[in-house]
Structure formats: C-alpha cells, structure tokens
Amino acid sequence: MSIISQKFIFQRTGHIVRNRTVLAAMTNKQSHDNGILSDNEIKWLTRRAKGGFGIITTAATHVSQDGQGWEGEFGTFDDLHIPRLSELANNLKQNGAISIAQIFHGGMRSPQKLTGLQPISASKNGCEESYSKYSREATEDDIYRLINDFRDAALRCYDAGFDGIELHGAHGYLISQFLGSKTNRRSDQWGGDINSRSKFLVEIIRSIKSTLPKDFLIGVRISPEIDKIGIKLHDSITLAKILRDECVDFLHLSCWDSFSRSKCEPDDPRSLTEWFTSTICDLPPIICTGGVWDNADAISVFSQGADFVGVARAGIAHPDWAMKISNQDYKPQKPPFSSLQLEEAVLSRKFIDYMRLWDGFVED
Ligand SMILES: Cc1cc2nc3c(=O)[nH]c(=O)nc-3n(C[C@H](O)[C@H](O)[C@H](O)COP(=O)(O)O)c2cc1C
C-alpha cells in the first residue's frame, strides 16, 4: 500500500487519521463581517472532507478582534462564533476527516482600517497597515491578554467539536513577528535569542495544554526561513527542538516549494524538510506543504522524512485530490483554471475573485 493511503495514529491523543493527506489552511474571504462562518466557507471545506483528505485545516481565524488580517475572515474571538464552528466541525467529522482550526493573530499585518486600532507587534516596526506607519510594541499586559485570547479561541474550537488547532507561527503574522530577530528587538524576557523569542509561542502552547483536555490536538505551523523578518534556518531548527520538548502533536513546515534548498545554506543539497528530519531526533509528526501536485511530488515529500503531505492550491481545484493521489498515474491539471471549473469545485464568486489575485490561477 502506498504510504499516502496509510493510517496514522497521533500518540498523545489517540486520533486516527485515515491517510497522510492534509488540506493546508487557506484564507478564502467568504465569511461574515462579524466573524461568523458563512455557508460558503462551510461548504467548500466539507466538500474536501468528502474528497478524502485525512486532515482538513480551516483558514486562519483570528483569536482577537484586533488580530483580523482580511475582510471575510471568520473569527474565534467570541462565543457567538461557536454554533457555526460546530456545524463545520460536525460536517468534517461526518465525512471522516480530522478537523483542525488554524488560529492566529495578524499582529502588524492586521490593517488599522479593518480593526480601528493601531497594529500591535513584538516591537515598534515599520508597518504599512498602520495609519502612523508604525506598529505598537506590545506591553506585558498586551502579551498576557494575547496568550489568553489564543487559549480562549482554542477552547471555543474544542467546545465546537474540532479535533484540534494549528497555531499559525508562519508567514510573518504575530507569532512569527515574535520569532523573527528583525521584528522582535525586545530586551525583556520576550526578546533576545530564539529561546526567548519563542517564549510567546511556548506560553500559548502551555496555556492551551493546561486548560484543554488531553484529547485535543495542538500543532504548530512555522516558516523555516523568512529573511525579511529575521527568521533563519538554524533558529528554526532550535525552535523545532523546543516544540518537540513541549510535546506538540505535529509540526507543519510551510516550505512554499518543498523541493528547494535553504537560502541560508544554498550549498547544502538538503531540502528544507530534510534539514529538520536529518538533524533532530524524536521530532513530532511532520507535515510538509508547498508545490505538491502529483503522485511523484507527494512521494518525494515522504522520502524527505515527512509524515504527512499538505496541499493548498491543488486542493482548491481538485476537491477529490486526496482520494486520487495514491494512484501513480494521477497528474492533476495545474493552473490556470476557468471560473466554471472553480465553481464546480464549490468555490463561491468571492473566493474565485480572490483567487484572481494569485498570479495565473484563474483565467476566463
Ligand atoms: C488562497 C490561499 C490562501 C492561503 N491562506 C493561508 C492561511 O490562511 N494560512 C496559512 O498558513 N497559509 C495560507 N496559505 C498558504 C498555503 O497553506 C500553502 O502553504 C501554500 O499555498 C503552498 O502550498 P501549495 O503549493 O500546495 O499551494 C494560503 C494559500 C492560498 C493559495
């Protein structure tokens, strides 16, 4: 049997995943202004659960009102969100998928015109989303409030019936602004070397773990490298060891291109994922996402040492990707896609229009 079709058991919680495929988080702008999930957002994810994905991750969802990143983003910052979150979690479960909500705060990437507040970050940074062109450095009180917001959002996801959460520590949002040496220049306990810069993330994990029952999955998504904010490969490797010691249930590496080399170590032939799997023992289960379309791509990700293969764009156009990918001959169509094809794949007009912003994805 192909590794892609094999079941996986999460040791700590006992969750059984039916195969090794993951629908990675995708913002789709389909929800309501008050953060309540829309029918369209529920439908598009339910369709991918029907299509056989082992794990379905929701779009990034903001844990605090001031952490919203985009219009149409659903929220987990208020109990008023719970009923529709339950509907989504139930649909995913009924269709055999493990449901994971990706919880996040945009930090200095939360536009003031959306939240009404000056964006917050680890330090005062240059910030296009702020009317003053600068983010505000989080005070100690802000930091504890934010940790509690992450914990309360996780609790709402649990109450709604989700199997777990993924903490969005990738792509330059608030958690990665704390991790990055350029965006976090604090001299207190929340800044310094990677051990101190990761304290915000670690405290979020500890707070969630101490509040929620043991059968709730807690994973973390990171970007191994983002030069612009000071996230470097060797710090990310240290971070992965820290996360292993915190016993997170999975580590999701956001590679964008799973087959590329490290920018910090361009002469080394290892892929980004291989840097983690070849240098760290007892890693948590690894999800690797980025640039995977066909069977050969997926198999290559497993040969790098990943336990799960994640896809985003392939899963937009091909809702049954997970069901077909273990077939060696499966070569799904790549972009561009027509809006009719995307409508048939259960994308609403809003989502299709958003995908027009992704270079070469939609063509009519
Ligand atoms: C429309 C769209 C929205 C995305 N939104 C998110 C998001 O909310 N959270 C996140 O971590 N990544 C997000 N991503 C990144 C994907 O999860 C994924 O890492 C990236 O697209 C590379 O994978 P792919 O080559 O399979 O598309 C998004 C990607 C796309 C295409």
Write up what this structure looks like:
This protein is α/β, with parallel strands linked by helices and 364 residues long. The protein has a single domain, classed as Alpha-Beta Barrel (TIM Barrel). It has 14 helices and 12 strands. It has helices spanning 39-50, 82-94, 112-115, 140-160, 174-179, 194-197, 199-211, 233-245, 272-279, 295-303, 313-317, 321-324, 339-344, 349-355, and strands at 8-9, 16-17, 21-23, 55-62, 98-104, 120-121, 136-137, 164-169, 217-222, 250-254, 286-289, 308-311. It has an 8-stranded parallel beta barrel, surrounded by 6 helices. Strand 1 and strand 2 form a beta hairpin. The protein is globular, with a radius of gyration of 19 Å. The protein starts with 7 loop residues before the first strand and ends in a 9-residue tail after the last helix. The mean pLDDT is 98. The site of flavin mononucleotide has 22 residues, from strand 4 and helix 11.
